Amino acid sequence: MTTKFSPIIDLRKKDMQECERAILQNENNITNKRAQIERIADELVGLKMPQNGMFSAMQAYNEMKKMLLAHLQNIQDELNELLLHKNSLQNQYKKHHIEYEKIAFLDKKEQDKMFKALNNREKREVDEIAMMLYNRTGGKRI
Question: Coiled coil: which residue ranges (predicted)?
Fold first, then answer.
């Protein structure tokens, strides 16, 4: 049964679902960043320092190490931003959910009112039919 709150419920539910999708997308991004951090950490561990040879090999090793550490720091910063965004998305979801529950409660109340009015009208109609039958038979039992 539709009430005046039905379109609002649909909007609130849509907002909640959009927020859920954003949370899932953010979770996927967090997982990807963690996998990138893991790969870079493995690459750093696998990096071998030259034991002998030219000084340029040592410089190349140091540059590669600095580059990997800088890249690791950038990805770690991005991960921290995603985690902060996750918290804000969760708070936003809570707000949307509360709004949805409020409107759903009002809708349920309105539906109950409508059902009560419908039942009362039905009772009056049944009573009216009973009175008409009673009057038609002259007060005798049928």
Answer: 16-92
